[in-house]
Amino acid sequence: MVDVDSSKRKFWKPGTSAPGEDIKEERIGNEIITSSYNPHMSLSIRQQREQLPIFKHRTHVLYCVEHYQTTIIVGETGSGKSTQVPQYLLETGYAKFGYAIAVSQPRRVACVTLASRVADERGSMIGREIGYKIRFDDCWDENETRVKFVTDGMLIREIMNDPILRQYSVIMLDEAHERSLQTDMALGLMKKILKKRKDLRVIISSATLDAKMFHEFFNTNESGDKFKDTAIIMPLEGRSFPVDVHYLTAACQNYVQETVDTIAKIHKGEPPGDVLAFLTGADEIDFAVAELREISRDLSSRHQKMMILPMHGSLPANYQMKVFQRTPQDTRKIVLATNIAEASITINGIVYVVDCGYVKLMSYNPKASISSLVITKISQASAVQRAGRAGRVRAGKVYRLYTGNESEYDKLSTTQVPDMQRSDLSPLVLQMKALGIVNIVRFDYISKPPAENMLQAVELLYALGALDNRCALTQPNGERLAEMPLHPMFGRMLLASADMGCAEELLTIAAMTQIQNVFVHSANEKMKAEKVKRMFTAAEGDHLTLLNVFNAFDENHRSQKFCRQHYLNYKGLLRALSIRQQLRNVLSRFKLPIESCNGNGRTVRQCITKGIFVNAAKLHHTGIGVYRTVRDNHELHIHPTSVLYREVPPQWVVFNEIVRTNKEYMQDITVIEPEWLYTFAGHFYEYGTSREISEKRLKTS
Fold it and tell me: Within this chain, do residues 407 and 480 fall inside the same structural domain, yes or no?
């Protein structure tokens, strides 16, 4: 098999040919295997399970679970830990006598796919013996479900309802290496629960995990006698085939375009096998999908067909599931994904991986009190995980769009910084208070959060009315905000809408801000799409524009044809529809009035300000389009995709989030009047009262 770029010598494989030298041919056997090839296709479900590496460790796994409170399983991708361990526990009787088994995942799509796979292997319908529960969606039965797959956030909400999880016999925290905010909080809570429930068993599993750190965290044995340890580490081997790694000979200027070019060359020059490409976000993925579809139309009949599929968190669940379907005959499946496909899910048939070398992460600036999405380089652990995707069904190749010499790969950090140390902690603090944790500073964190981040979180929650002057949860607003499946700022916005008579509008806006890329178009349709976009544009900003889009979609019978004609994201709008109904149910549960303000944009904007006042900025005289945050004088700019990106920018605005590229840009922006800030959040901007209370309480803790 000839290297995909042997003609231009763009890639090189370390150990076989250095940059500038001839690249030799290499072959993997004599057999060409199609992309839909599965070595276990003809085997029964039982035989497939028995061929997984974890099967020979079944007895060992069960022994560890029985004799130790915490079992830490480190298993390579493909070992079968995520699907088999829950079944071993079920078969052994851990779900008898009214108990159930919970398996937590960092990502929604992983919960759904794993639950579906395990249900198939058990020969049952999803939602009965095997079920799942994720934000804005669940599929399980209170009486029948014995194994429940949940997101880490949903597991924390289960703890809020039952602090010692009396209905569960085993809690399995899978993919713990991702170290999300909810994962770290769940780990700390599990340690507290284990002290109260000696019969509960916890399993921590991952492919790339600092097992020693987790062992030290959960092991309560201080006697020095290893036989009295309460935690144990159990390593597993994987089932990966060899993977050839190729690097660029020189750095590329545009990794998105380079990804498209590399996929095209793989498709034209490599034997059959599906492709998985990693990009940082939905916008990059949509651009690459459009480019590849153009290339696909120009292919000659002698080439395989291309089945191009996006994969990111903002897609509706039914569209995410398409990547797991079997690839048709004479077709190459090409999946363009965010890091959602790095470890949490497994897509069968992948032989080639294209790794852009970047990931989009949320970063919090405590001085400016703003969170921003930052595109940053991946860690070496992530690079290894991405490469492992290529070796699941047969020997594969990974093309890394960065150089492999000392200047690039070796400079990547070993692991990613945990979310706990780089995130806005206000959702975490709110949930901790709802769980009755008084001393949030001395809570047993696996990675200690920065003190400044904690201080800012307490201050914001006080300003939102969620905490009182003793840092206790307020009644009823604090408790209601803790139950909201949204950031506290958006939750406050929804609660305020019930009082201001515009809940119908704010439900729509809150739902629409949960999806990405409402407007979609290819590069050659940009002018046409911009013209159509102006039909929905509201002079007051992006939030009211989103409201106009949703109302138009609803009035046109939620038609896919309407979305296609107006360059709207049909899949995203369907998801917004589902989210809106879920949020409506929450307000109904609180018995709050759900009314419409009948198009009163001023009331809607006041309500938005009441929730996200912390993200307020004023036009500054230092340059054209330069804004400064009201709180900390931090320089910002309006994002070019905003409807407020115009010649005469507004004086005062509030925004949802920051995206950082060459500058820091505000996204989802609304025009406000400055007196609203004094009315709704004067105490916050005075800076004294709430901060003094926050510091005093934290110092006391």
Answer: no
